Amino acid sequence: MKQLTDTVWQRRGVSWVWDDDALNCVAKPSEVWSLRELVRASRSWPETLPCNDDQTVVVAGLDACLDLMSPQDGDAWLGTDLKSIILSFQDAYSGEAALVFWLPGGERRFHADMASDAIRWKCQASYRDQNIEFGRLLWGEAREYPQEILMEGGAKPAGYFHLRIT
């Protein structure tokens, strides 16, 4: 998997971030939207964005939402509803804005298959032994993406970045 040391993820594309320092680069806690706010905003995207000097939306709650669903329901919701919102966001801002999903603890929940670059989300509770095919559902296993986000001087990933989902 390619690694990204550039800050482009703070201004463009879609990211899934779990590192506190990475989150602090783009948003103050009061600027973070809930998943519900994202869904509501997707009906009519605002002209200005709440974070990072009008360049970014940071959303919390995706992890909790997935935890409330069965893996099958999570697959269906990610591949249709959430993907539709992401595509709408990209179109509304012509790829000139960033959508960042804040996933605290995500480094323990995401599993990257080094041989195929497939990304899976580890389910919790009664579905602990199952995964959601995150990469296949959201970016169709595009091999050049996602990229691991590395913060300045960081040796461990802070999240995943995808420039444009299709």
Report a brief summary of the structure:
The chain is built from six helices and ten strands; from the N terminus they run ββαβαβααβαβββαββ. It is of the alpha/beta class and 166 residues long.
Question: Helix proportion of residues, in percent?
Answer: 25-40%
Which structural class do you get from the secondary structure elements? alpha/beta
Low-confidence stretches: none
Please give the order of strands in the largest beta sheet: 1-9-10-2-5-4-3
- In whole angstroms, the N-to-C terminal distance is 19 Å
Number of helices: 6
Strand content: 15-25%
Order of helices and strands: EEHEHEHHEHEEEHEE
Mean pLDDT: 93
**Rg calc:** 15 Å
Give the tally of structural domains: 1
Shape: globular
Describe this structure in words.
The protein is α/β, with parallel strands linked by helices. The chain has one domain (3-162). The chain is 31% helix and 23% strand. It is built from 6 helices and 10 strands, in the order ββαβαβααβαβββαββ. A 7-stranded mixed β-sheet has the order 1-9-10-2-5-4-3, with helices on both faces. Strand 6 and strand 7 form a beta hairpin. The longest helix has 22 residues, at 71-92. The protein is globular and about 40 Å long. It starts with a strand and ends with a strand. The mean pLDDT is 93.
